[in-house]
Design brief:
There is one protein chain. The protein is an all-alpha fold. It has one domain (3-111). The chain has helices spanning 3-16, 20-62, 68-97, 99-111.
Amino acid sequence: MNDKMLEALTRLADKLGTTAAHLWDVLIRQAKIEVAVDLGFVVLAAFACYLLRKWWISYQDRNGEGELITLIIATTACAIMSAFALFNLCEIPTLLFNPQFWALSQILDALK
């Protein structure tokens, strides 16, 4: 970290009543939690798409009345969840292999 970043981290730590080293450790631990949350969301989106596929096959077999709007809403929700899951999937390698970079980017975002 450069001096400007360390100074900003120290000021933030002073406001929170802690030390910069403790604040940095907390951010590194938070990266692990972010990985768990992101992976959970990816699994949830995959499971939702799996259920939607099973439901679609069942719908085609029955060809029931009044279920088409529900299918459209479920497909839209699944597409949105999948888009967010793909975004989260791209962030997971950074969180796993370089949590310091993630912590640094969180500090930079907070300073903006």
